[in-house]
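Take a look at the protein record below and flag anything odd:
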Amino acid sequence: MKLNKFLYPQSRYYGAVKPENLVFNANLQEFAQRVGYIANLETAEKISPQKAHQDISELWEGLKNSYHQLGVQN
């Protein structure tokens, strides 16, 4: 197994197949993966809770911007 696929796994997309949905799904999976890493770093006391909160807030803003820019619909 390649290290990249091990560290950054991606699940299959099951929704309506439209380019904007596929891109947003990839962004959402990346967000979830990074939040997991940040949470683990904070749990291991490698970063402060404030830094973890700041990093997750920045990721969240990026995900929200992605959602609006792509025009994803329900």
